[in-house]
Design a protein that fits this description.
Elements lengths: L2 H17 L6 H8 L3 H7 L3 H25 L5 H18 L2 H7 L6 H25 L8 H21 L6 H22 L6 H11 L9
Helix pairs in contact: 1-2, 4-5, 4-7, 5-9, 7-8, 8-9
Keywords: DNA-binding, Repressor
Organism: Priestia megaterium
GO molecular function: DNA binding
Length: 217
């Protein structure tokens, strides 16, 4: 991606954060970026294609920064994971990624929908893989369920926090959800109670998760 494309992405990102994806027109992007319609379509076939490029750029930035976060906690895998999750949630909030994604749900943009599903699958897969590194091996059969629980709790806690306009800090929400997830994983491992078998889903997630979304912790 050349500098002109990066500049267009930067201006578009600001517009999406200010006006939302749906209410931002291609003309808005042209005026903010100071480019012609021909220049726009030279690099992007549509506004939805531009959104995909923006989300891809943000994802690459998130991954690079996420891996730097854990370096400080090499001796404490669990703490390192928590800090990575806190960073990811802060990154998403600061860049208004959830709002951009939610705004596309009302549109019939199949390619955008599939790309967002790939992003979600990649994030879940990363959480599941990190769980296998931070929890004892005896809990391994129950970590897929644990990853589902953590992601579900985080998503709903943040939605409720926003709906109630209740200023709970991201750090508190992440640590609370992580602690509850740890307790559940330990309990179900003791009771040998498994809901989902990871082997059933591994092929699905391997297909959905593209290689450039995954990095070693």
């Amino acid at each position: 991606m050349n500098q002109k494309q990066l500049d267009i992405l930067g201006h578009t990102h600001q517009l999406f954060m200010e006006k939302g994806y749906v209410d931002t027109s291609v003309q808005d992007i042209l005026e903010r970026s100071g480019i012609s319609k021909g220049t726009f379509y030279k690099y992007f076939s549509s506004k939805s294609e531009l959104l995909i490029s923006l989300l891809s750029s943000l994802q690459e930035s998130l991954i690079l920064q996420r891996e730097k976060v854990v370096i400080e906690y090499r001796g404490d895998n669990q703490k390192g994971f928590q800090e990575q999750m806190i960073f990811m949630m802060n990154f998403a909030e600061q860049n208004k990624i959830p709002e951009m994604i939610e705004s596309t749900l009302v549109l019939n943009e199949v390619k955008t929908f599939h790309y967002i599903e790939e992003l979600k699958a990649a994030t879940f897969n990363w959480i599941y893989e990190r769980f296998q590194q931070i929890f004892p091996s005896k809990t391994s059969p129950y970590l897929f369920d644990g990853a589902v629980l953590l992601e579900g709790m985080l998503n709903n806690m943040f939605k409720m926090n926003k709906a109630l306009n209740y200023p709970l800090p991201i750090e508190q929400i992440v640590r609370y959800c992580m602690k509850r997830t740890e307790e559940i994983i330990i309990e179900v491992a003791e009771q040998k109670e498994q809901l989902f078998s990871p082997s059933v889903y591994s092929a699905v997630f391997n297909k959905k998760t593209e290689s450039h979304f995954s990095t070693d912790p």
